[in-house]
Amino acid sequence: MTGTRFVGTKFPRPEAPDKVSGRALYIHDVVRPGMLHGAIKHSAHAHARILRIDTSRAEALPGVEAVITGFDTPELRVGFLRENRALKRDKVRNQRDEIAAVAARDPETARRALELIEVEYEVLPAVFDPVEAMREGAPRIHEVDGRGRPTRDNRVPMECRHHSGDLEAAKERSAFRVAGDYEVPWIQQSCMGTAGCIAEFDANGDLTVWAKTQIPFLAQRDFNRALEEMGLEGRNTRVIVTTLGGGFGTGLDTHCYEYIAILLAHRTGRPVKVLMDREEEFRYLSPRQSARVHIEQGCDEEGRLTYREVRVLQDNGAYASWGATFPTVMLLPVTSLYKVPVVHFDAEIVYTNNTYAQAMRGYGNPEVTMAIESNLDELALAAGIDRLEIRRINCNEPGEVTPMGARVGSCGLRACIEACAEKLDWRAKPGRNGRLRGVGMASMLHVGGSGRIYRSDASGIILKLDDFGNVNVFYGGVEMGQGLHSTIRLAIADSLGVLPEKVRVNPTDTATCPWDVGTHASRGAFMACNAALEAVRKLRARLFAYCVDLFPREVERALRKQRAGGPPPRPEGGAAPDRSSPPSAEADLSFAQGRAPGDFELEKGLVFVKDGPDAPWAKIPLDRILRAIHFREGGDMLTETAFYDPPSELPDWREGRGNMSAAYTYGAQAVELEVDPETGEVEILRFVSAMDIGKVLNPQALDGQVLGGLAQGLGYALYEEVKTEEGAILNPNFTDYKLPTAHEMAFPVDLVYVETDEPTGPFGAKGAGEPGLVPTAPAIANALRDALGVSLRTLPMTPERILRALDPSAS
Amino acid sequence: MTRTRILRLKINGHEREVAAEPNAILLDVLREGLGLTGTKRGCDMGTCGCCNVLLDGRPVNSCLVLAWDCEDREITTIEGLLPEDPGALHPLQEAWAETGGSQCGFCSPGFIVTAEALLREDPEPTETRVREALSGNLCRCTGYKKIVEAVLKAARSGRGVEVGS
Fold first, then answer.
1. Do the chains contact at A192 and B138, CB–CB below 8 Å?
2. What's the structural domain count of chain A?
């Protein structure tokens, strides 16, 4: 490998010009010839039996091409527990249930047709609280499970727990113990580009789906299963990923709307687009999982943690999507954030008639870190130990094996905590104008070397060199705005030895890209670059093997050409070399003869012999060599693949054990803020983010990930909540659901990166996509406690909640 | 249907004709009628700024404007900010790409035309002024820092050509 030149430097993203000039094509912008527009009719009740659906009036509307229901289409099962259906037939279980769909010539006609569909229901008793849903006699959401077996209660059959050590003995041993109950809400991922897809069948019965997805290959598997259920055995789905318009976890599952588009396309024989508008996205897309977390932690006289007990209760809503698996990610911080010898973790996930949740950035981690880090501050307070000190005392260290079996490689948590301590003024000082000032911090730990939740946690890559010296990259992971393509470009430019603009990362398409498990778990750069480095090693080996024969001829040719007055080779994108000293007639070419592959090097797109003369004619442009390899008898073109599966273990979820990631990312955030005790308004004065990301690969993308994460964390902490009543979403728009704007984000942020050089990481780097928002809410909660002297344990920490915490007697 | 009329719109310095019903909103006419898909639909109610265009130099939510009300007015969309040289970008677009103001990119066109209106009015705005001017635009990716940086950078570099005026 050559030395790094581009990795670690600020470089514009390859897709930026298209995005800033309005040329990038999102699903909203893609049009297929003859395309129809689909719209979906949703339930009017949270729990009801469907007695009758009359679609005749909708069918009669001019411009309507098809109306479908669960009664006249094949049953398509959805979700990892297979208990959801694309179109519901027996009953509806929440207010977002899909019961009919229309394909029409334009979106307005499709929506008008929905109003003409008449549905008769028998309303059933509903349950909206997970505790009530667990009571005997509670309305049963699912009478049978996904395999048709009768259910015993409303619990979701998803087990994830961890018990290590003797909890009661640890409690007795503890000098100080503090318990607390925390509650975090559903929040909406709020991608600026709403969700949608296009489904189209060709004349062979094969399907193409243009999708807004983060899991093209798992989607292909899901859709192929749907094709089988539709009687199209042996047919295939090709998933093409458009420019995403934001992911944040929304694209980690396949959705009913996608299966409905497939059914409509099949019924009509035409391409069908289903596109959600903002209100539909709020109402019918799965938000981030909500949770109630009970936590207890103890420490000894010196502040060393003695135990951690965490019990999580999740309102699963009506069906299982990835929200049901949040405990599998909570497991890591619960067992492994700080050194804690005894850990008991239990999770209960319960069906209700509410909306059901999906993934969002951090996936369980921010939910439980809110409880761990807030409770830790209270423990420090109880023990009379400084808040920074208790974190230093219990800090994770390299080489540690945590209770769940996470093998810590690089770990810079201590340096992150110190950076936070140093950047903020921790001494109490009065707020301005009667406001109360507070400082707080929180740490975090997240998977940094992908997170194994499937048997294969791999990513494949193909690098195809062409006659022009381009490196065409085919990678199955998804660029969703995080800067993945930009990072891949820098990594390949450096490791192969070409200029970044020669590296062209192609759109993700299951027909051309090798398999990838999905872009989640902060794994994009870690996986893509590790795969790329392996493919680059193979490419260089093959290239240099050909150079043994071809290079001497190419040098001779270059020399001849230059003597004849032709232009000397120009380094890719560089200035023309100095021509003032033409090579002498006696130039000795023997340096190029009889070389071994290991004697060659490729840098900035020029191939040369490492100890050869430093002359223009002795450096041959890569495209020249590639053409020489190609255009001859027995010619060849250089394409290499790599399939990288990281060194990690699939955990045993029932035991809560396994080294689920190849590396672990650590970090801490600290905040200084002021609160107005009269109004409850919070003003953030300053934020510090310190993260151990192993090594900075792509500074522009990394800053964006951290700052964007922080803004989402701020929204989670102070503003955002999907409000529901009897299962209906009450605030399905940006007027009633508040996102932070440039105004709320006006405070200064110190970004600190701790480089610990992770051995498993590409160039030493670890995953950095999600951590930005993980510790934000507890850091703010801890600063609020510092300011107010009371604890806020429910998110978002709105002015009303702050005032109520200050004066519990006030209504 | 029968009330559909051919509108003459001045878009990005060119006269364009397009059929529109009386209740057609400008956003739809731009995207569907004229193929100017750089203007994005984000919320349909003027809360996200993704659909912002300039109407007589002022930023408006094109999802809230009736196309019939736009005749004889100057409309500038993100496409209209591009210089004529192929491959060249407007200074704001350039600054956006350089700082990383664009991540998923969906909000970028709306932000950029809004910033253009600000810089036409105030070529050297303070950071506070920039944040105020952009507070009607939502971004979920960047945390806004790089966006504000991009506007300030473009302001410092001088804005180059005026387009559509």
1. yes
2. 2
